[in-house]
Amino acid sequence: MKSSDKPSKSSKSTAQTTPKLILRQHAEQQYAEELQELAKADTRPKPPNWKLSPWAVSTYLLGGKLANGLEITPKYIGQRRLIEVAIATLATDRALLLLGVPGTAKTWVAEHLAAAISGSSTLLVQGTAGTGEEAIRYGWNYARLLAEGPSPEALVLSPVMRAMQEGQIARIEELTRIPADVQDALITILSEKVLPIPELNSEIQATRGFNLIATANDRDKGVHELSSALKRRFNTVVLPVPESIDEEVEIVSQRVAALGQALEIPAEAPALEKIRQVVTVFRELRQGESLDGKLKLKRPSGTLSTAEAISVLNNSLSLAAHFGSGELSEEDLAASLVGAVIKDPVQDALVWREYLETVTRERKGWQDLYQACRELV
After folding, report:
1. What are the CA-CA distances from residue 74 to residues 78, 243, 256, 307 (Å)?
2. How far apart are CA 59 and CA 50, in angstroms?
3. Can you list the positions of beta strands (E) in the chain?
4. What is the pTM of this model?
5. CATH 3.60.20.30 holds for 23-238
6. Residue 17 pLDDT > 60, yes or no?
7. Where are the domains of the chain?
8. What residues have CB less than 8 Å from 192, skipping those under 6 apart?
């Protein structure tokens, strides 16, 4: 073997990357122990090619305690019935569309559903304005295509085609970001469970267990509405924003703790009081009124979702760890809040100042946060 053919040090180090060094593990990696224990305890009937029964999948997502004492952490905090409907849909021949405003855990739920059902969440198509039909159907290895002509060996399988062959769950993120003519490539796949390959005069028939989870929201610019024909192939489950402030605080607390541990941020976990402050600010600005309903407020241009509240707290923890005392302060929170709320430097700045003067300034126990925010705007 020539010296140039030897694997480089960098390729060796890439292959030997340990799980600890991975920035973000897939759901099936991060929660491997829970999935294994659920599989051992699962005695209920499973649909074809499912790793777990629908009951075990719901326990994995919603949390619970196994007979051996293992506590399954909830991945989704919200209405149980929504998750049950989603799981039941995937056990039929209809695809699942998770719909909701940005930050309502659509991607999170889709990933964990695929991990629990198929044991893998990696068969993913990320929808963008530039997503082509080959990302959903198949592509070609053009070097082989030119040398040999169309052949099965020259095919480049899409994640959806692989899911059909292997009887697994495929995911399509931001379906409404994909151009309408590309979206319609799904119609035959979802209705006939077949992917035609006219160049080879053949087709791929879906193996039992195949299904598709798509996510979409209608708040982003550049949205392409689904055709009526495609909508009929999906069962739609709308994931709402958290119903109560206590529910949202619980979600944010859980995710901030998990992300802080994964990112190894050297800062103390934020006090519940500070998490509640951030969640309160987001809920009031998002709803356009104070929590007690006494004050009407202007809304900023951003969505101020639960996911963004999690990001604000993680960013604040990073500031505290690397440029502060290691304990989350009002100054750290204020710096992150301003960046999250003020997306439009003119309109949102006015909304934020008005909120500070009419709500934050008068609220008991919020004076330090008010002062820290006022210094930045």
Report:
1. 10, 17, 14, 16
2. 15
3. 64-65, 71-72, 95-99, 124-126, 138-140, 155-157, 169-173, 194-197, 202-205, 211-216, 234-238
4. 0.88
5. no
6. no
7. 23-238, 245-374
8. none
